[in-house]
Amino acid sequence: MPAPARPDVLIIGGGLIGLATAWRTARRGLSVTLCDPEPGANASFAAAGMLTPVTELHYGEELLLGLNLDSARRYPDFVAELREASGGADPGYRESGTLAVAFDADDRAVLADLHEFQRSLGLRAEWLSGGEARRLEPMLAPSVRGGLLVEGDHQVDNRMLLAALFAALEREPRAELVRARAAELTVAGGRAVGVVLEDGTAIAAGQVVLAAGCWSGQLRGIPPEALPPVRPVKGQILRLAVPEVYKPFLTHTVRGVVRSNHAYLVPRAHGELVLGATTEEQDYDTSVTAGGVYELLRDARALVPGITELPLLETRAALRPGSPDNAPLIGPTALPGLLAATGHYRHGVLLTPATAEAMAEILATGSVPDLAEPFSPLRFGK
Amino acid sequence: MPAPARPDVLIIGGGLIGLATAWRTARRGLSVTLCDPEPGANASFAAAGMLTPVTELHYGEELLLGLNLDSARRYPDFVAELREASGGADPGYRESGTLAVAFDADDRAVLADLHEFQRSLGLRAEWLSGGEARRLEPMLAPSVRGGLLVEGDHQVDNRMLLAALFAALEREPRAELVRARAAELTVAGGRAVGVVLEDGTAIAAGQVVLAAGCWSGQLRGIPPEALPPVRPVKGQILRLAVPEVYKPFLTHTVRGVVRSNHAYLVPRAHGELVLGATTEEQDYDTSVTAGGVYELLRDARALVPGITELPLLETRAALRPGSPDNAPLIGPTALPGLLAATGHYRHGVLLTPATAEAMAEILATGSVPDLAEPFSPLRFGK
Q1: Fewer CB atoms < 10 Å away: N or C end of chain B?
Q2: Any chain B CB within 8 A of the CB of A287?
Q3: Other residues' Cβ atoms within 10 Å of the Cβ of residue A188
């Protein structure tokens, strides 16, 4: 449908967070316009799609764990509804389980600590010996000393998820996608009232959502007190092919710490193997570097030596939106009418359903769900 | 110009060897048709373009050394004439010198032996201490123990050379390029008399040249006694970018033996850095693999650790035409009217001028130059 003269909600940024927020918000009956010159092109496209709140648990992030677990639990219904709304697109959700492995006594101790912490929080994880881990995944390196199996940590093919969201929005009469860059926020009477696009077109809106990942603080016209403190954190990531003769190569997501680098291998149902990822503070640089590719291959080889024979399909770098406390910004900013849904750092794919649901609730009712409350953008207020 | 009904010479294969042979032969006054569905697309495009007969000297290959040195000496005139014939295209020839380095006492001994052998043959090479090597190339690893500087071993940008050859052929009235695959050799009266293209078109010709690299033995209709014994030898190769801030990164080609792998880095004038290459017997497979890329980056990093920061521009695999004795096949085969110019293995770019000149001489006069005589395809006769 043509853009309404003044949509209820204008979303800036068409990554997974923006697209899913647009879809869920339109489902609540609001009219939504999303603008992005190249939707689905950045971190959402590059990501590995791990849904691993239990395996990626960190001390001191219990609040984030609550949101992560909530979002993981929402995934089955979210993708089922999305499949229907999109006219049958497969969102690529796969309940494949995750195996975190240890190489030496130090790794083993770290993993045992993590296991203890997981159990103290009532999370399910199973300790495996090296032999048990290799029986589960025969391609694991002989040097693997033990592992932690988390059957409940799954994955989604983020590229299939993007495609399903595009299809759902296409069929949603209250949503419109504008392939253009928002250049400036329009503020009137102390309130966000729309944006001006790069070509000069003005779009007025009831509420404006910043969902532009690490670029969310770059829009002109945002008053300083409402600027989301996000920064780019570069990640380089590889995709390998698993030829028929090697299938099934891996059936679980495999994670490990190699020389203090976190490495992972995520096997897709259709045979791709995703290898990630570097974590680099390099401003907005997105070059794939010799060193980045070297380290990813070196660490993945240490976990699964058999990758040597696999064709290298793709090398890529993209920018995660980092925040000062590594947790997302969800909800109203200090400027009335301006909301944020950004700063998801390493958990953007995982947090897509919970964020979209929380944002739709806030946009439709003005009230912030309890689970989202700790992630108010106002926590960074001056 | 339109193809003559019956060109004097028909060349199968549009790599550097085929293109240069076509150009030099047309210059001798013969009409030439070259057919290739995708000229300049395989090993000639992938190659690093090292012109390093002295650095790549091997025991037992003194005959090949003679041809290699002859071809290296021809390069300056060859590219000057090509530049003129092409209407000004720069063939990318660079007299940048080559530095072979050693890491440990074993490498050092190997390099010292090579130096001795070079001197015994009257070749010019200068021994450098580790410190001297690093003064010449400050990006070299601190662990480099010594090096052999060969000022006379140069390089050519094989992609610029291809472009110049295309331009020269375009302007050559006696030459024609047909973008189609030769399917079958036509033999009549015990003599090669032309080919049939994949679409059924027949081209009759006075003489036929097999210059299809590792595919030279695949053409249907070649009698067994005339089949060139070439095989594909896969090479994976990388291209990095050198950003302005790092220039000049390297000024010489740097070669080294790392864990018995031969690694090299070739710096282009325009800032590209070529890293090569694997040597794999993998039949006709041309996939870029995780292991290939890993090893190239690992070995190049050992020589020049600073590559870590450089953007990775390209990963590629192509097939060298290997022969039973690692030397090329140049000249008449056992079938009258059928000649070969293939099997150049690792030296195709280097041997382009000498091969093209020898082939033009043979095609125009029927007599084989002395230097090419040892490389007769008939040496593999049954």
Answers
A1: C
A2: yes
A3: 10
pLDDT tens, residue by residue, A86-119: 999 999 999 999 999 988 888 889 899 999 999 9
* Residue A189 CB coordination number (10 Å): 7
pLDDT at position B106: 86
Backbone angles phi, psi at B32, to 5 degrees: -135, 135
Residue of B nearest to A287 (CA): B311
CB contact set of A11 (below 8 Å; sequence gap of 6+): A18, A21, A22, A25, A32, A33, A34, A35, A208, A209, A211
* A298–chain B Cβ distance below 8 A for any pair: yes
CA angle A203, A205, A208 (to 5 degrees): 105
Superfamily of domain B9-46+160-229+324-380: FAD/NAD(P)-binding domain (3.50.50.60)
Share of chain A above pLDDT 70, in %: 99
Touching check for B250 and chain A: CB below 8 Å? no
Strands A32-35 and A126-129: unpaired
Instruction: Report the run of H or E that residue A275 belongs to, with start and end.
Output: strand A272-276
Lowest mean pLDDT among A228-232, A302-306, A310-314, B102-106: B102-106
pLDDT mean by block of 10 residues, chain B; 382 residues: 76 98 98 98 97 94 94 98 98 96 87 94 96 96 94 98 98 97 97 97 97 97 97 98 95 88 92 96 96 97 96 98 97 98 97 98 98 97 66
pTM, to two decimals: 0.93
Strands (DSSP E) contained in B84-241 are 93-94, 98-102, 126-129, 146-150, 154-156, 175-178, 182-188, 191-197, 202-204, 207-210, 231-241
Contact B309 A290 (CB under 8 A): yes
pLDDT at position A1, please?
A: 40
Structural domain boundaries in chain B: 9-46+160-229+324-380, 98-151+232-322
- The token pair at B167 is 């331009």
* Burial bucket for residue A286 (CB in 10 Å: 0-12, 13-18, 19+): middle
DSSP state of B60: T
ipTM score = 0.89
User: How far is residue B50's CA from residue B352's CA, in Å, rounded to a whole number?
Assistant: 12
Mean pLDDT for chain A overall: 95
Contact A300 B287 (CB under 8 A): no
Question: Are the beta carbons of A297 and B293 separated by less than 8 Å?
Answer: yes
Whether A145 and A108 have beta carbons less than 8 Å apart is answered as: yes
Type and span of the H or E element at A134: helix A130-136
Q: Between chains, do B310 and A290 touch, taking CB under 8 Å as contact? A: yes
- A289 shares contact with chain B (CB less than 8 Å): yes
Comparing alpha-carbon positions, the chain B residue that sits nearest to A295 is B294
What does the block give as tokens for A58? 């960190």
Distance separating alpha carbons of residues B153 and B135, to the nearest angstrom = 19
Intra-chain end-to-end CA distance of chain B, in Å:
42
Rg of chain B (C-alpha set): 21
- Residue-level pLDDT at A3: 52
**B293 close contact with A: CB closer than 8 A:** yes
Q: Which one, of A273, A277, A296, A266, lies nearest residue A233 by Cα?
A: A277
Give the right CATH number for B98-151+232-322 from 3.40.50.720, 3.40.50.360, 3.30.9.10, 3.30.499.10: 3.30.9.10
